[in-house]
Amino acid sequence: MNVTEKPMSDAAPEDEPAQAADRLSSAGVEELLAELRGRQEGAGAPAAANGKAAARRGRAGGQSSGAAPAPGRLQDVETGAIVEELVFRQRSIYGTDDRQDLYQVSDQRVRNDADCVVSLWHQSNIVDAGNNKSRLVTTPFWMAHNLCATEPFYTQSKEPGGRGTGFLVARDVVATAGHCITQDNLATTRFVFGFKMKNGAETALEISNDEIYRGIAIIDRRLDALPPNGSGADWALVRLHKPVTNHRVASVRRIGSVANGQAVHVVGHPAGLPVKVAGNATVLDNTQGAFFAADLDIFGGNSGSPVFNSQTHEVEGILVRRELDFVPTGLGCNMSYVYFLPGTYSGAAVTRAAQFAARLGLGWQELEDNALTSAIAAGGGALYQLRANGELYKYTGAPMVGWQLIDNNRLTVAIAADGSELYQLHGNGEIYRYTNTPLTGWQRLGEVSAAEEIVAAGGRLYRRHGDGSIFRRTVTTGWQQLDNNQQTKALADDGATLYQRHGNGQIYKYTGTPMTGWQLIDNNPLTKAIAASGDPTKGASTTAAHRLYQLHGNGQVYQYTNTPLTGWQLIADTSTAVALAADWSSGIHRLYKLHGNGEIYRYTGIPVTGWQLLDGFSSLSGVKALAAAGGQLYQRTRRTLASGAVLSAGIKRLVG
Fold first, then answer.
1. Angstrom distance (rounded) from CA 538 to CA 90
2. pLDDT in tens, 485-511
3. Are strands 276-285 and 139-140 parallel, antiparallel or unpaired?
4. Cβ atoms 266, 306 nearer than 8 A
5. pLDDT for 341-373, tens place per residue?
6. Phi and psi (nearest 5°) for 29?
7. Backbone torsions φ then ψ of 85, nearest 5 degrees
């Protein structure tokens, strides 16, 4: 659009500036628009930044507010003054520009979202600064686009080429738009973390070399024609030259699609600027299979940015297309394009995450990020979390937001789940069973005890006391004592049989006679943990349906082959394994191990060599525990600073 300024002879006389200002301030938006349209060389194009609220009103059939046009009332007002007044009106009435610098964002979840984002740079604009650092070569934002001084971020600097944005989807994989990366520019592109405004005046231009990555391969890429000639999909996955060990991997929607009207936000580098967050946006159009449209405040350079669901904080897609960025104002400078006219804003196009998620393989979906989470338990298809303040929640299926409060008792210190059953242990030794009524539906199982551990499996509940006593809960007799040995430190049940581990490494199998019916099946002082899984519908005699494992202090893992003392097969021979989790579901035994460095592995059935890496750098997330049930694996994470302050915490589920 070209806006032509009226000749000087038509401008307001010098003795009438106050009257012109009054007419401007009293005019409605429609009147201002009518006057501006009358001065346009062409017809139809609206004026100049982003009026998404007006677009929403237009889609609903609404009209902008203001007095009815009065032809000629503004004819002696300069075009530039009308444009500036319209921009001001749109920003104050409709919330035109929702972009913020990261330092301005207070929502920690959104700040966490930004941790996975990179800016794309040409290698020539990154120069060595010594001391394992590089300096980013930038150009003034206003100069690159001949911007008016009223433009947001006018004084900031930008990446000269505006190559785009990307985000981490695996430890060594970045996702971006397909049009941002090709085989031709892969070798000269650098992926940079940390290009941001430190405050209102200072830009982070000196970057550690550890925050700069190069791509070594394009794993896959799509750049389809727009409908009806193609799907419109636009995405690429780039393998980095080394794993990223200090930034979050984005949680990506794997299946399904975002709902119409869902609130979303984008994090990226509009026009190559330091990272910006833009929210207050919704999904406008969800009709296309490969992409959706949302009224996001974006510019070129945002291409490749992750678009997050503002409730779940999952990536819903990749920002790939926009409408106009800047237009001339008639004042000798450019301003952001504004969609003043109702119904003219079709939205930014976002390639759906499901278009590329299948190429990611296994991944971890974030379900919760509450720093108070202290324990998790899984049973059947259910997941529960206990918080340090005693609150107990059940997961209802929506990541981040789908947690139902089912109890709130500060005495709760532990939880255990089995199938559809959930139990909690209080610090005074009381044990309660959940009867499926939130907050009030808890049945006390017996009187106060000295229980320190509860274990639930195969439809049975056990408690272990500090003095080594073991009790089993039965429907008919209540609590029945099974043993009383001060060496007992831990219990495990494979669905048919109970096992106990002693502090001296001995492992005993319960044979069915209380107090005396315990068979010694191993005697190794290196034993530090046991785990078991099995089919609760099969008896102990069906040995293939039940598994018992032990972990040694040197990291070795053994599987019991049902010959006491000698029948233990070495299945893992590593020095850093620290915990095991086992599960049986749908006829399949699953065994997982957690290493001290945070790595998580799944056993594939081949002794020693048959371990599949599921999470290679989980130490960044501070993995504290695993829980496995119903064919699902969960990890509880907690990162702390040297001071002990919690940096982040949460729950993740294995997907893919």
1. 69
2. 999 999 999 999 999 999 999 999 999
3. unpaired
4. yes
5. 444 456 788 999 999 998 887 788 889 988 899
6. -60, -45
7. -65, -40
**Taking Cα atoms as reference points, which of 484, 593, 589, 492 lies closest to residue 534?**
589
Least confident of 38-47, 149-158, 352-361, 615-624: 38-47
Question: CA angle, corner 316, sides to 312 and 318, nearest 5?
Answer: 140
Mean pLDDT of 300-311: 87
Structure-token pair, residue 1? 């659009």
**Tens-digit pLDDT profile for residues 584-636:** 999 999 999 999 888 899 999 999 999 998 886 554 557 889 999 999 999 99
Rounded Cα distance between 646 and 183, Å, is 42
Structure tokens at 405: 């409060």
**What number of other Cβ atoms are within 10 A of residue 642's Cβ?**
5
Type of residue at 437 = T
Interatomic CA distance for residues 138 and 152, integer angstroms: 18
CATH code for residues 99-337+345-359:
2.40.10.120
Which pair of structure tokens corresponds to residue 561? 């082959």
Q: Give the separation between CA 362 and CA 652, rounded to whole angstroms.
A: 13
In the block, residue with structure tokens 């009223």: 150
Confidence of residue 334 (pLDDT cuts 50, 70, 90): confident
d(CA 400, CA 308): 12
Task: Supply 417's token pair.
Answer: 């789940």
Tally the C-alpha atoms within 13 A of residue 29's C-alpha that lie toward its C-beta.
21
Q: Which residue has the tokens 């009207």?
A: 261
pLDDT, residue 59, reads: 31
- Contact partners, residue 201, CB within 8 Å, separation at least 6: none
What torsion do the CA atoms of 306, 310, 313, 315 make, to the nearest 10 degrees?
Answer: -30
| Domain extents in the chain | 8-94, 99-337+345-359
52: buried, middle or exposed (CB in 10 Å: 19+, 13-18, 0-12)?
Answer: buried
- 386 beta partners: 375, 392
Sheet with strand 506-510: strands edge to edge: 488-493, 498-502, 506-510, 518-523
Length of the chain: 656
Measuring CA to CA, how many Å separate 250 from each of 34, 112, 169, 357, 372? 46, 9, 5, 11, 22
Query: Hey, what are 452's tokens?
Result: 């320190």
For residues 129 and 206, is the Cβ–Cβ distance under 8 A? yes
- The per-residue DSSP string of 162-219 comes to ---EEEEEETTEEEE-TTT--TTTTTTEEEES--SBSSSS-B--EEEGGGEEEEEEEE
Among the listed residues 552, 494, 487, 546, the one whose alpha carbon sits nearest the alpha carbon of residue 520: 487
pLDDT at position 63 over 60: no
What is the arrangement of strands in the sheet containing 623-629, beginning at the earlier edge strand?
A: 363-368, 646-655, 632-640, 623-629
Global pTM reads: 0.70
Quick one: pLDDT at residue 14?
45
- Phi (first) and psi of residue 525, to 5 degrees: -65, -10
- Crossing angle of helices 79-94 and 17-26, rounded to 10°: 40
Cα separations (Å) of 133 from 128, 278, 286, 537?
6, 30, 44, 61
- Cα diameter, the chain: 110
Greater confidence, 578 or 624? 578
